[in-house]
Amino acid sequence: MEKDGQNDRRRQRAERLRREAANCLGIAVGTRDQGTAAVMIDEAERLMGGARALETA
To answer: Is the pTM for the entire model greater than 0.90?
Structure first.
């Protein structure tokens, strides 16, 4: 039972990280400042990496 709970928490966290990454990309697309866009894209990439890591754990 503990494993199912851990898997559910990992899946939920991965989903949240994906949503946050999508938000970062939305900000990157909407900004005119290239520096801000680059930071947001980097953050989105980091968040997606975290989501992938949770899925494979």
So the answer is: no
